[in-house]
TrEMBL record, chain A:
Top-rank taxon: Eukaryota
Keywords (A to Z) from UniProt: Coiled coil, Signal
Organism encoding this protein: Oreochromis niloticus
Pfam family of the protein (one): NUC129
Organism phylogeny: Eukaryota, Metazoa, Chordata, Craniata, Vertebrata
Name this protein carries in UniProt: Nucleolar protein 7
Automatic annotation (TrEMBL), chain B:
Superkingdom classification of source: Eukaryota
Alphabetical list of InterPro entries matching this protein: Quinoprotein_ADH-like_sf (IPR011047), UTP4 (IPR046351), WD40/YVTN_repeat-like_dom_sf (IPR015943), WD40_repeat_dom_sf (IPR036322), WD40_rpt (IPR001680)
Protein name: UTP4 small subunit processome component
GO cellular component: 90S preribosome; small-subunit processome; t-UTP complex
Gene Ontology biological process terms in this record: maturation of SSU-rRNA from tricistronic rRNA transcript (SSU-rRNA, 5.8S rRNA, LSU-rRNA)
Gene symbol of the encoding locus: UTP4
Molecular function GO labels: RNA binding
Length: 312, 675
């Protein structure tokens, strides 16, 4: 923690000696020294967030002449003596070339800065940008950390489940036994056929479920004789694929988005446009659209009934 | 002529199944058509488009593609299997599982040595075609996404495969995908919907033509992989595409979901031969539903789809206009009889692919009662069925087995299966009961007829009727027994008719071969003459006793049949006789039934064939002068069967086309002006 004297640029612990000598005082009455946690920019005197004097910090230090505003605006180029941090970083003391031009304004800006007005501290664009970047970076960091934490938790939970599952399943020997029994072809009685139906229905789920079921069955020793475990026939997988393919064709030709109409409409239109124009097919043929006709009849009766009630 | 009491039967709910795919064999002029229920039909284009052979379908055999290799027929379906068919015995010869999931397409190279199939898992598998089988050779590189369509380059060096959103060109030697052609999606709202390339064609100049689900037909340069031309032909899908590869590859036909068939031709806009390009020429609107199958013959375009009708449209630049050749042909009904009639008992048997229905005709004006017998024998569909004349026996066969049932009625009809059948009755193609219902005749493999005695107790094998030794002939598709039980007539698809003497149990004679296939045969009960009608609508009468054509038949041939009769486009599927009048022959096809009176003269060449209405209006004395032998009635349509019962009442089984059309799947909604 050091105090930077803005006039001299000297850093000191207790206060700037030269300023004190000059009667300007250090921190305290009448004057606000800019005590910021940060190091100042050599060329413009703006302080930047402190970077620990690590290698990374040193790396982040800007090489001479690369100040963002160096090429553009002439803001506050100041020829400033190096701060301690800068000295630590071992930078050359040469500053931007604009320093010569801007020298006449130096004193003006200095005085501005040193003035003790109540105006709020001007946060420069670079500062605020830096702040924003910093906060974003922090947010990202925290998010990443949280994600990692979650991952860890999930991994641990998964491992726990695996262990539990292993404990629940039978030992490998028993499973082998069951597998060898199932690979033999057997004549099935009706009971066995019923039992087979269930695995067949769920055949799409794969063998995991079968293992569980066989596990449960084998555990119930008294039922062992009545049940047999056989592999699901290949045909169900093939027919499942066939169904998927048929679904594909059906959805491409008749699915949503294809403008399809009914045979009734098509034939009715043919009736309308034909040489001998006639009514729509549901009126021409007696046995078509019987439900609609029944509904229409009911509606007619109801309406007539309604008409009669007010009259009588 | 006579008045008949008519039983007008409309409760036969015959529903043909949709045409999924077809393939034309230009060497043998046969068209193979695969339907949605797995049945494969072979049409002979040389013989008036007669439906020669029908291989019954099977549940679960959903055929997606057919392919001819020489004389062999292969099919591939969504059950993942490639099937080769035995066209002599009319059954699948063997199936090979491709292990790639459902197969969407199959195609053979031009040399006929390799077969490529496109599978659901994204691989193109190459099979080598060997003598009696096919063998898996290798896979081409796998792609993500199913392979919907395939086409070989005529040089067999490249394969173009259509998938979702793209077409890939593979090198057939190395299996690498050399080019990828990206197909644009549809404009507008369906930009998110993937475009499926339903069909693809590869020409010898490396032009690729594709039809996709966005309704576009696109022409690509296969060497550079660039799009040459796009035609937006429909708002719906372009489901099928065919190139006339056997000719000069100058015509491409595309079939759409709207039911239109569009032709593109490679012609030049100016008179000289240079700067030819693909131009859209003709549009045919012969279908009401999706056109999913196409074939291109030398002179015609054949299309079929969801409306179950096969349409043959001759191209007028290849045939002469206004002739029989240039007429549009629509084949909607099968070319064989699906209805069996028990004349003495008044029973009707309706044959469906997966079941049989037995109906009793009602006495009064009312309806018939039904006793449905439903069969679910595994998955095979019914090949043929027969009902005995007395109504006591019922038999049917599939590709694998034959079943015989005994029918009894006390107050209700009961049907009991006869358990043990002789083992010779295995794969049977046609069944026929003798007129006294004591014997069952079955045509089996090696062109022989098995005679089996049926009785109350058992069913006993009697005899096998064969041709001359060792000679192998085609399978018989027609069987007919005479009323007195002495003769049996059989006809096969090689246009041969054989007569067997049942008392001696041997071959009696063979009718001289006519070059058209017989569509129906019958033996007259009184005169024992064989009447045969052929696919080109010719009628012959052959005397069995004298082993020669009768005088009447010779006179008819000399006179010639009227052109209106010969130009009918549906074959005669059933002949029956009038017990009261032996001169009458009753025939029917889909649109008319006709009573031929053998005692009346034949019509002159310039006479009117359908003169029943005019005769009705004439006074009786003048009628005799005008009437001729052919009495045609067109009141009932569309006829599935016309039969005469013993009590002289006519049974007419109709299936109006409108009823079939009303049960078809949904067509596309077309917005027409003023509707």
């Amino acid at each position: 923690m050091f105090t930077l004297c803005l006039f001299t640029g000297l850093t000191s612990d207790t206060g700037c000696a030269s300023c004190a000598a000059a009667g300007l005082g250090s921190s305290g009455s009448g004057r606000r020294t800019r005590r910021r946690l940060g190091c100042s920019c050599r060329c413009c005197g703006r302080t930047q967030p402190t970077f620990p004097p690590t290698a990374a910090g040193r790396r982040r230090a800007r090489p001479p002449g690369t100040h963002p505003s160096a090429g553009g605006r002439r803001q506050r180029p100041q020829q400033r003596p190096q701060t301690r941090a800068e000295k630590q970083r071992g930078k050359a003391s040469s500053t931007s070339k604009t320093a010569d031009i801007e020298k006449p304004t130096e004193s003006f800006t200095l005085s501005l800065e040193s003035s003790d007005d109540e105006a709020p501290e001007e946060v420069t664009f670079e500062d605020s940008k830096a702040e924003a970047l910093r906060s974003m970076k922090q947010a990202l960091d925290t998010a990443r950390r949280e994600k990692e934490l979650l991952k860890e938790k999930r991994r641990k939970r998964q491992e726990l489940f695996q262990e539990q599952k292993k404990r629940k399943l039978l030992s490998a020997d028993v499973l082998e036994e069951i597998d060898s029994a199932s690979s033999k072809k057997q004549k099935q009685s009706e009971d066995e056929g019923e039992q087979e139906e269930k695995p067949e229905k769920e055949g799409g789920d794969g063998k995991k479920k079968k293992k569980k079921r066989s596990g449960k069955l084998a555990n119930a020793r008294n039922l062992k004789g009545k049940y047999t475990v056989t592999t699901v026939k290949e045909r169900t997988l093939a027919s499942f694929q066939q169904q998927v393919a048929e679904e594909f064709i059906r959805s491409r030709l008749y699915g949503p988005g294809t403008c399809r109409t009914t045979s009734n409409e098509m034939l009715s239109l043919q009736n309308k446009k034909g040489w001998n124009k006639s009514a729509a097919v549901q009126f021409v043929k007696k046995d078509w659209a019987s439900k609609e006709k029944a509904k229409a009849e009911k509606l007619k009766k109801r309406w007539l009934h309604k008409q009669q009630i007010p009259s009588c | 002529m006579g008045e008949f009491k008519v039983h007008r039967v409309r409760f036969f709910d015959y529903m043909p199944s949709a045409i999924r795919t077809m393939a034309f064999n230009s060497q043998t002029e046969r068209l193979a058509v695969a339907r949605a229920d797995g049945a494969v039909e072979i049409f002979n284009f040389n013989d008036n488009f007669f439906q020669e052979k029908v291989i019954p379908g099977q549940d679960g055999r959903a055929i997606e593609a057919l392919c001819w290799v020489g004389h062999r027929l292969f099919s591939a379906g969504l059950n993942g299997e490639i099937t080769e068919y035995d066209l002599e015995n009319l059954r699948p010869q063997y199936t090979v599982d491709a292990y790639g999931g459902p197969i969407w397409t199959i195609s053979s190279n031009s040399q006929g040595t390799q077969l490529a199939v496109g599978c659901e898992d994204g691989t193109v598998k190459i099979f080598a075609i060997l003598e009696e089988r096919i063998q898996f050779q290798r896979n081409l590189n796998r792609h993500k996404g199913r392979i919907i369509s395939l086409c070989w380059h005529p040089s067999s060096a490249q394969i173009a495969a259509g998938m979702t959103d793209m077409i890939t060109i593979y090198d057939a030697e190395t299996g690498q995908a050399t080019r990828r052609l990206l197909v644009d999606r549809a404009m507008g709202a369906s930009k998110n919907k993937e475009v499926v390339v339903w069909s693809v064609g590869y020409l010898s100049d490396h032009t690729i033509i594709s039809g996709d689900s966005a309704g576009k037909v696109q022409i690509w340069n296969g060497l550079t992989g660039t799009l040459v031309r796009t035609y937006l032909v429909t708002k719906w899908d372009v489901l099928s595409l065919i190139i006339n590869a056997s000719q000069d590859e100058s015509s491409v036909i595309a079939g759409t979901s709207e039911g239109t068939v569009i032709q593109f031709q490679f012609i030049s806009s100016t008179l000289d031969q240079h700067d030819k390009e693909w131009v859209r020429t003709r549009t045919f609107r012969n279908h009401s539903h999706d056109v999913s199958a196409l074939a291109h013959t030398d002179t015609a375009v054949v299309s079929g789809g969801m409306d179950t009708q096969l349409v043959v449209r001759p191209l007028l630049d290849k045939v002469e206009k206004n002739t029989q050749e240039s007429a549009l042909r629509k084949i909607a009904f099968p070319h064989r009889s699906l209805v069996g009639c028990a004349k003495k008992a008044g029973l009707l048997l309706f044959q469906f692919p997966d079941r049989l229905e037995l109906w009793k005709l009602g006495e009064s004006e009312g309806h018939g009662e039904q006793h449905t017998h439903t069969h679910t024998l595994g998955e095979d569909h019914i090949c043929c069925s027969a009902l005995s004349a007395c109504g006591g026996w019922l038999a049917y066969s599939t590709v694998s087995s034959v079943r015989l049932y005994r029918i009894q009625y006390n107050k209700t009809i009961s049907i009991n299966k006869v358990p043990k059948l002789p083992k010779e009755l295995r794969s049977v193609h046609q069944l026929c009961f003798s007129s006294d219902s004591s014997k069952l005749f079955a045509s089996s493999c090696q062109s022989s007829v098995i005679v089996v005695a049926v009785s109350q107790q058992e069913c006993r094998y009697l005899h096998t009727l064969k041709h001359k030794t060792g000679e192998w002939k085609a399978r018989m598709h027609l069987l007919c027994a005479s009323d007195d039980g002495k003769w049996l007539a059989t006809a096969n698809t090689d246009c041969e008719i054989h007569i067997y003497n049942l008392h001696k149990m041997k071959l009696h004679c063979m009718v001289p071969v006519y070059n058209s296939c017989p569509t129906t045969i019958a033996i007259h009960p009184v005169t024992n003459n064989l009447i045969s009608v052929h696919a080109d609508q010719q009628i012959f009468e052959f005397s069995l006793v004298q082993k020669e054509y009768t005088q009447w038949s010779r006179r008819l041939q000399t006179q010639g049949l009227l052109s209106l009769w010969l130009e009918r486009d549906t074959p005669i599927t059933h002949i029956t006789f009038n017990p009261k009048n032996p001169d009458h022959i009753i025939l029917h096809d889909t649109y008319m039934f006709c009573i031929i009176d053998q005692s009346l003269p034949f019509p002159e060449l310039n006479a009117v064939l359908w003169n029943q209405m005019t005769l009705k209006n004439l006074p009786v004395s003048q009628r005799i002068g005008q009437s001729h032998a052919f009495k045609i009635c067109k009141i009932f349509q569309h006829l599935m069967c016309v039969s005469l019962l013993e009590d002289l009442s006519l049974v007419v089984v109709e299936r109006p086309l409108l009823d079939i059309m009303s049960q078809l799947p949904a067509p596309v909604r077309q917005k027409k002006f003023a509707t």
